[in-house]
Amino acid sequence: MQRTSASNTTAGSTAFRDLAPGITGMALVGSSVTVSRSLVDAPLFATQAVRYAAAALLLVALARAARVPVLRPRGREWLWLAGIAATGLVLFNVAVVRGVAHAEPAVIAVAVASVPILLGLIGPFLEGRRPSRQVLVAAPVVVAGAVLVEGTGRTNAAGVGWAALALGCEAGFTLLAVPVLRRHGAWGVSVHAVWLGALMLAGLTVLFERPADLGTLGPDQWAAAGYLAVMVTAVAFLLWYRTVVAVGAGRAGLLTGVAPVAAAGAGVLAGSGVPGPAVWLGLLVVVAGLAVGLRPGRTPGTAVRTPRGDRASASP
């Protein structure tokens, strides 16, 4: 199969068109915080299984409509894709739900917002290059801004443990994709990770819940699950992985700082009130961190290589 560079940019010169999908994807992820509140009383595994199953069907249909080939995984690729599904989809949701039982939501959010540091350190090594000094300087700035936006909050030892697990799972969602993005591209990784996650969650539903409990969901809860399936899973996954392909995991990781900002904005639209001064300060700090990490420089980098079909297709 012919391959082509996913982007003509370098690590030091990142075009906005390569960053825009990731920014949009993280904004959608941030909006999920407000939407997910409708699902607090819903059966966890069953609802998430339906969400990811619906997203998988949608992704397959979109790939066929766009004539993008979705390759069958082979060998160790199954392990990488299963790892994405197990950590970034299944365990992450468990960590968040169980974590908020021991800690304020802000604690979990701050832990997840720390992911740029992990991606900035580990991502470049998986891509065969050294970490960018710009990214390593900017990552703590973005994290600091996210902490200001989300606040801190009270917790106990169990809450800290669940927060750490959520951080690791969020980082795994990107890092475990790097080796398979080269062959499968954003479409293939998204499709396989989502259907594998749906299968895992279906198994957990059978073991720990009753599928019949889905009948207790009301219209608002089904609407929330539908939004999560379409926008936060199918669309956001594609957008995010396209940016990882184009600019690398380290630089893309900085964009996770957009999620808490989007969450705060979604809260305002939902009637939670105007944010306080700390949130506005955090917003400015996040923007400053992104400006430092994404500004043009002289250090060349290597974009993840991806199949031609994935590059030629447009994001949904």
Characterise the protein shown here.
With 316 residues, the chain is mainly alpha-helical. The protein is built from 13 helices and two strands, in the order E-H-H-H-H-H-H-H-H-H-H-H-H-E-H. Strands 1-2 form a two-stranded antiparallel ribbon. Helix 3 packs antiparallel against helix 7. Mean pLDDT is 81; it is low at 1-13, 298-302 and 311-316.
Give short descriptive properties of this protein:
single chain, 316 residues, mainly alpha, two-stranded antiparallel sheet, 13 helices, 71% helix, disordered N terminus
Question: What average pLDDT do the residues reach?
Answer: 81
Structural class: mainly alpha
Largest β sheet strand count, sense and barrel closure? 2 strands, antiparallel
Number of helices: 13
β-strand number:
2
In the predicted model, the low-confidence regions spanning at least 5 consecutive residues are: 1-13, 298-302, 311-316
Shape by Cα distribution = globular
The ordered H/E elements are EHHHHHHHHHHHHEH
Question: Approximately how much beta-strand content do the residues carry?
Answer: under 5%
Gyration radius (Cα, Å) is 19 Å
What's the layout of helices and strands?
Elements lengths: L2 E3 L10 H21 L7 H22 L11 H23 L5 H9 L1 H12 L6 H18 L6 H19 L2 H31 L10 H29 L1 H6 L3 H12 L7 H18 L10 E3 H5 L4
Antiparallel strand pairs: 1-2
Structure in a nutshell:
Helix content is about 70%, strand content about 0%.
